[in-house]
C-alpha cells in the first residue's frame, strides 16, 4: 500500500500554476527524492501532503485514505501522522531542545512517563542528550538539523517530508547528515519524501528519483538504473 | 564629513533636542533659586495629597493597561490571524481612536450618557454622572489606547515565521498551536505594548481634566498653567519621568528589545489564518459590539449632537484658525520627523548607530507630553532664545523629540525591504552615500516614507500634551482650542468640532489603508 499519494493534483497561486495534474506515489518505507529547479512545485507537493494546503483539483491520500481533495481538507495536518523537516528547520525559539520534542507528544496526549522515555531515547539516538535543556538557537547548524530530525521522529511518523534541509550546510556536514538520515530511515522504517535541487543529494538518498519541472513529472526512475 | 560621522551627528542633534529639556527641567527643580536644594521636592511630597495623587494615577494607568491587555491580546489574534468576517474593517475601526485626542471620546461618552444624551434616560435621574470619575476615565482610556496593544501585537503576529506554526500543525490542534507556539512568540511585543500604553496613560491631561479626575499629569500642568509655580511644576513632572524610566528598565530586565519585537516578516508568505468555522460570524458581531461599546456609540452620539449645519459653521468660525495652524504645524513636524527618522534608521542599518538607540526614541515617545513640554520651557524660556520659545519652533521641537520613533521605525522597515545589492550597485557606479540615499533608497522606499509622514502628521495633529504646555501665545492648536471650548462652549459646536477632527484624521488614515492594501497586492 502507498504511504503517500498525490493523484492528478493541481495547485495555483493567483495566475501562477505551481502544480498541474501532478501525480506521485511513495510506498511504505520507500525513499523518494523530488528533484527540480526552484519554483517547479516541489515544495507545494510537500505542503499538500503535510496538510497545510488543499489542492485545487485532484486528491491527496495518506495510508490509502483520502485526506484532501478539490479545495477541501478532509483530514487536518495533525491527524495525518506525517513528520516534516523544513528548509529553515523552524525550531521553536522560545522552547528548549526538550521542549521542542515534548510539544508534539504532549499535544497527542502521550502520558508523562512515556514522553520522558521517548525524548530521552531520541535525544540519545541523535547524540544530543547533553543539550536537552539548551535553547536551539545556541546550537551549531548540524546540531540544529539533528534537533529538527529528532522532533519529527519522536512522534513516530509513517512518513517524513524533508524540504531541502541540508541546502545551507557545508559539504562535510552535508555528507555526514545524509548518512545519518539514511541510518535513521533504515532504523525507523518511515517513508521518506525528500525535496532537493541537488542531483548528488537526490542520488545519494533516494531509492527512486522523480524529476519535476513546471508542476509536472518529467522523468521518474531508480538512481542505480 | 563621512557617512558614519554625519549620521552620528544627526542622531546627536536629535538626542540633544530631546534630552536637554529633561536635564534643564531637573536642573530647574533642583536649583529653583540658583543653589542646589531639594526643598521643592520635600515641600511637594510632604503632603499626603501628592502621594495619594501619584497612587491614584498609577492605579488608573495600571487598570487601563490590564484591561486593554486582556481585551487586546485575544482581539489581536482574532483580527490579525483568523478568517473573521470583516476583520480588516474591524481592525481599522478599533485602531481609529488612537488618532483622536482622548478628550474627543470623553466628550462623546458624556454626549451619549449625559442627561440630554440618546441613552441618558436609561440611567435614570443621575444620568451618566459616573462618567465624571475614575470609571469614566478608565472607559475612555481603554478605548483610546487599546489600539497600541492591537498594533504592536498584530504586527508581531503577522511578522512571525509561518513555518514555526506549520511545524506544530503536524502534531497539534489549532488551539494548541495558538497557545503553545503563536502566542508565546508575540509575548515580547505584547508586553512592550502594555508598558508603553501604561506610560502614555500617565501623560494624559485632556480627558482627565474634562472628566474631573485629578491625576498627576494634570497636577503638574495645573502647577504650571494655573499657579505658574514653575519649580513645583517641574518637581511634579519628575516622578512621572521616573515611573517611565522604571517601566523601560523593566523592559530591559525582561529582555524585550524593540529591534527584536518589530522586525519585518521573515518570509514573503503571510501565516495561514486560523479557521473559525461557524463561530466566525458570531465572533465578528461580538467584536463589532465591543467596538460600538467602546468608541462607536460615543462617536455616533457626537454626530447626532452636531447634526445641524450651523453647528459646523460655528465650529469653523471658532476654531478655523486653529485648524489651519494645526495642519501646518503637523505637516512641518511630520516632515522633520521623517527626515530625522530616516537618517537615524539608515544610520542604524549601516551600523553607524547602536541598536540601543531604538530604545531611546521609544522612551521619548513614552515620556508624558506635559513633562516634555515643561522641559522645553525650562530650556528655551530665556531672553536669548525667545526666537524659539515664543514661536511655533518650540512646538516643532517637541513633536520631533516625542514622535521621531514613528519615522524611525517605519522608514527602517521600508529600508530593510530594499535588497542591499541595489545600493551596492550604485556605490560600484561611483555614487556617494547621500546620492545613494536620495536617488536609490528613498525612491524605492517611498511608500514607507509616505506612510511614516502620514502617521507622524496624525500624531502631531492629535497631540494635546505638548501643545497644551508650549503653544505660542495667540497660536493655539486645534486640540488646545477644543480643550478650551469644552470648558465653556456650546455642546453642539463642540460636538461639530470633534466631528471635524475625526474627519481630518480619518481621511489620511484611509489613505494609509489604501497604500497598505496596494503594497499587499
* Secondary structure tally: strands of chain B: 0
Span between termini of chain A: 24 Å
CATH topology of the domain at 1-75 and 184-225 in chain A: Rossmann fold
Computed structural class of chain A:
alpha/beta
Shape designation of chain A: globular
From the spread of the alpha carbons, the general shape of chain B counts as globular
| Corresponding CATH architecture of the domain at 1-75 and 184-225 in chain A | 3-Layer(aba) Sandwich
Number of helices of chain B: 24
Largest interface, by Cβ-Cβ below 8 angstroms: which chains and how many residues each?
A-B, 24 and 18 residues
Give the C-alpha Rg of chain A: 17 Å
End-to-end separation of chain B: 41 Å
Poorly predicted runs of chain A are none
Average per-residue pLDDT of chain A, rounded, comes to 90
- Give the H and E element order of chain A: EEEHEEEEHHHEHEHEE
Write structural notes for this entry.
The complex is a heterodimer of chains A (225) and B (521). Chain A has 6 helices and 11 strands. Chain A is of the alpha/beta class and 225 residues long. Chain A has a domain at 1-75 and 184-225: 3-Layer(aba) Sandwich (Rossmann fold). In chain A, the strands form 2 sheets. In chain A, strands 7-8-9-3-10-11 form a 6-stranded mixed sheet, with helices on both faces. In chain A, helix 2 (97-107) runs parallel beside helix 4 (141-153) and helix 4 (141-153) runs parallel beside helix 5. The model of chain A has no long low-confidence stretch (mean pLDDT 90). With 521 residues, chain B is mainly α. Chain B has 2 domains: 1-30 and 306-521, Orthogonal Bundle (MetI-like fold), CATH 1.10.3720; 50-265 and 294-301, MetI-like fold (Orthogonal Bundle). Chain B has 24 helices and no strands. In chain B, helix 16 (369-380) packs across helix 18 (393-416). The longest helix of chain B has 41 residues, at 309-349. Chain B is globular and about 60 Å long. The mean pLDDT of chain B is 86. Chains A and B meet through strand 7 and helix 2 of A and helix 7 and helix 8 of B.
